[in-house]
Amino acid sequence: PVSGKPFLYWLFSNLKRQGIEKVILSLHHQAELFEKFLQSESFNLEIQTVVEQQPFGTGGAVAFAIQQINLQRPFLVINGDTWLSRSVAELQTQSTPAIGLVHVEDTSRYGRIDWQDQRVRRFLEKEPNAGPGWINAGLYLLQASDFHNWDGQPFSLERDLLPRWAQQGRLQACPLDTEF
Question: 2, 4, 64, 143: most buried, per Cβ within 10 A?
Fold first, then answer.
């Protein structure tokens, strides 16, 4: 809870304020609690839930949701525990795949992202006393077709797919001017 409301309430209210009209919420653990919460609130958003019967990891959850709703176009992904005061419009102007980046004074808690010329070069692991730098904001612009050949196995967006795209020179870097 944040100020007496679940964090998700504030996240949805913020997304609506930024012009988002439709949300697909990927659920697994305690899915029924989320669905009960959604029934008790009105966000003026079209909200659809997709429930994984087994955890697929962050990448598998995205692929599963795409499969379940038959998505065929670019879409945004935001981590459910991430607060970005503004940023959606900035990221939507990028080519897919793209990742939102925020600058922080100490990257040791997050790991850092090495980028140049609007492309992510590599992801660096968490290091003690790492100092200032750019980190993953937990906001992505992705293309549904990149997930259409999913094999049904769990995988991580952050550890498996994004670093591969960075290595291939495909991952766009989008520095965001936002509260994080």
Answer: 64
- pTM attached to this predicted model: 0.93
Q: What tokens were used for 4? A: 């007496």
- The half-sphere exposure of 81 on its side-chain side, counting CA atoms within 13 A, is 2
Residue-wise pLDDT tens digits, 108-144:
999 999 999 999 999 998 888 889 999 999 999 999 9
**In whole angstroms, how far apart are CA 124 and each of 14, 116, 134, 172?**
30, 14, 10, 16
Cα torsion through 157, 32, 6, 63, rounded to 10: 20
User: What DSSP designation does 164 have?
Assistant: H
Supply 121's token pair: 């070069």
DSSP per-residue letters across 34-58: HHHHHHH---SSEEEEEE-SS--HH
| pLDDT value of position 58 | 96
* DSSP state, residue 155: -
